[in-house]
Amino acid sequence: MSAALLSTHGLVAHYGDFQALYGIDFEIAAGEVVALIGANGAGKSTLLKSIMGLLSVAPGMVQLDGRPVGGAKPHRMVANGVAIVPEGRRLFVGMSVIDNLRVAIDHAGKSAAVGWTLERLFALFPLLKEKQAVPVESLSGGQQQMVAIGRALLSQPRVLLCDEISLGLAPKVVKEIYQALPSICETGTAIVLVEQDVGLARSSSNRLYCMLEGHVSLTGRSADVSREAIGEAYFGGAHAVA
Ligand SMILES: Nc1ncnc2c1ncn2[C@@H]1O[C@H](COP(=O)(O)OP(=O)(O)OP(=O)(O)O)[C@@H](O)[C@H]1O
């Protein structure tokens, strides 16, 4: 792999007295798609939140271009070129599609080279152009997910963190959304994909990390890791996964 754009080093995270992550070493290069898989409660969302500055971590535990950024506030991370599509989407209800997107433009990071514009976003998801005046709450789940991804892209991320973007969506919509990923990466944006569907995670990523109880239980090139190895890493025993 080429030099890491974003990395974590012995990252630990807590919720009060409860320790959720135990020394996570993770890295992703520009233009890569890296999947994070693991059972419920394994720590995938906690890793994304720790990277995004939503949980407090020591500076050196998260590095961007080799510089310590751990513990920086979320708005600083956005300015640094990191964006999150959160689980549950968290759109601004009562606001139109275009107003949800404009919020991101107003708070965009400085990675101008990434170059996301409304025009480019509408080319990626034509439906957003059609529905731009519509209040977000009247959209389907899949359409809302496109707004959430669009909002994140308009903040010009070099690293896009996606937390279960396929959750609760029809297979056809999931396919449509996943088909957009290569266009997102082509200008060098890296994507971290938390995904419950292991088959989809494998087929959509260059590399994957499997997490188990706050640890990385397996990592490797997605095309090379066997189902058996994933099954064992996923459940902590000899189980197979689809
Ligand atoms: N706000 C919180 N307060 C206390 N404990 C939490 C909180 N959020 C998560 N946890 C705990 O931290 C651990 C890791 O949770 P996390 O949400 O990161 O897992 P996950 O792999 O993303 O799972 P899921 O697929 O269910 O979202 C779990 O034991 C969970 O119960």
From TrEMBL:
GO terms for molecular function: ATP binding. SUPFAM superfamilies: P-loop containing nucleoside triphosphate hydrolases (SSF52540). Gene3D superfamilies: P-loop containing nucleotide triphosphate hydrolases. It comes from the Bacteria. Keywords: Amino-acid transport, ATP-binding, Nucleotide-binding, Transport. Signal peptide: none annotated. Residues 6-238 form the ABC transporter domain. PANTHER family: HIGH-AFFINITY BRANCHED-CHAIN AMINO ACID TRANSPORT ATP-BINDING PROTEIN, HIGH-AFFINITY BRANCHED-CHAIN AMINO ACID TRANSPORT ATP-BINDING PROTEIN LIVF. Belongs to the ABC transporter superfamily. This is Branched-chain amino acid transport system ATP-binding protein. It comes from Rhizobium miluonense. The lineage of its organism: Bacteria, Pseudomonadati, Pseudomonadota, Alphaproteobacteria, Hyphomicrobiales.
